[in-house]
Amino acid sequence: MSEARSDCIFCNIVQGKTDTVFLFENENLVVFRDIHPHAPVHLLIVPRRHIRSINDVGEEDREILSEAIWVGREMARMEKVDRSGYKLLYNVERGGGQVIFHLHMHLLGGWKR
Ligand code: AMP
Ligand code: ZN
Fold first, then answer.
1. pTM
2. 2, 36, 42, 68: which is deepest, by most CB within 10 A?
3. Residue 3 pLDDT greater than 90, yes or no
């Protein structure tokens, strides 16, 4: 489940095989801008491990969920949308709007109030 997949765009991105710019990275997660933003600030917080969706997060990986929220909150501060407000969002499977089947959390914000 968590083997890197050469046919997975996000595996290629997190391994640094593309020219995607990381706003943050550590051993577990990377953060980059969504290529088709749905908000003035639209970032993706992406675990390095290939996990298909929220449904597939195993016991051994559960800490990635709290770390993603923690990093998302930090990125909201860095992007200066923390006080105005933002969304942290997972799309889960096709019916939930997921189109890339490598776990990722959206950070959306920066709308005019
Ligand atoms: P989801 O619908 O939750 O699977 O969201 C996938 C998101 O990935 C979409 O918002 C896409 O715009 C975004 N996306 C797809 N390819 C790339 C890419 N190469 N770099 C950055 N974002 C991407
Ligand atoms: Zn992947």
1. 0.97
2. 68
3. no
Q: Is residue 21 in a domain?
A: yes
- What CATH number does residue 72 fall under? 3.30.428.10
pLDDT above 90 as % of the chain: 95
What is the three-state SS of the chain? Answer: CCCCCCCCHHHHHHCCCCCCCCCEECCCEEEEECCCCCCCEEEEEEECCCCCCHHHCCHHHCHHHHHHHHHHHHHHHHCCCCCCCEEEECCCCHHHCCCCCCCCEEEEECCCC
CB-ligand 1 contact for 91 (6 Å cutoff) = yes
Whether 70 shows a pLDDT value over 90: the answer reads yes
Question: Which numbered ligand comes closest to the C-alpha of 102?
Answer: 2
Mean pLDDT on 70-89: 98
pLDDT at 113: 72
Our answer on whether the CB atom of 34 is closer than 6 Å to any ligand 1 atom is: yes
Atom of ligand 1 nearest to the CA of 90: 3
Q: Quick check: is 91 in a domain?
A: yes
